[in-house]
What we know:
Layout (H helix, E strand, L loop, with lengths): L10 E10 L4 E8 L5 E8 L3 E6 L5 E9 L4 E5 L2 E3 L7 H13 L1 E13 L8 E12 L7 H4 L2 E6 L3 H6 L6 H20 L10
Parallel strand pairs: 4-9
Antiparallel strand pairs: 1-2, 2-3, 4-7, 5-6, 5-10, 8-9
Amino acid sequence: MAGDEPQQGFRQVAERPRFDGHVFKVRTVVFADPDGHGFERDVVRHPGAVSVVPSHGDGTVTLVRQFRAAVGTIVLEAPAGTCDVDGEDPESTALRELEEEAGLRAGRVQRLGAVYNSPGYTDQRTIVYLASDVSPCATSPSGVEERWMSTERIALEDVERLVAEGRLLDATTIVGLLLARRALESWTRRAPGPPGQAGP
């Protein structure tokens, strides 16, 4: 995959199925290290995901509060979704998830980067987008968690404080907010005007 570090002598030898779920799969993967010694790791195979930070042009963004079963609590995070629709490109997935979850339609979207969510056990890779020129639209909840989802507007200048206070815990969201703030500041320097409304 473009952007990955070289394997430096590590190579995959085999892969055995363990579990096939609706979204992800679990595999036992056999590798050989640079000395030729074999070892196994259980890996969660994931189709990838997107995360989108919607900017309102005034230094604030909208996040969603969603119950996450894995941690058993509600998490404040950027609108996001799995790339699980055949033929749908990641940018279209981001725009769709933004409308479905946050009730916002974007006039412009910019790719900010990509992150591995937890490379110690999964190959999940999330592409982060910044959405601007946003306007309200109808939501379209999918699943139980989204039916109970709510939104919260925060100031980008408060990101570090919210992390330190434990209110922001989702790593992909934190990365996305910091990248979004950097991009918006860059736009403002190049073309004076409200962030998210000016720039190329």
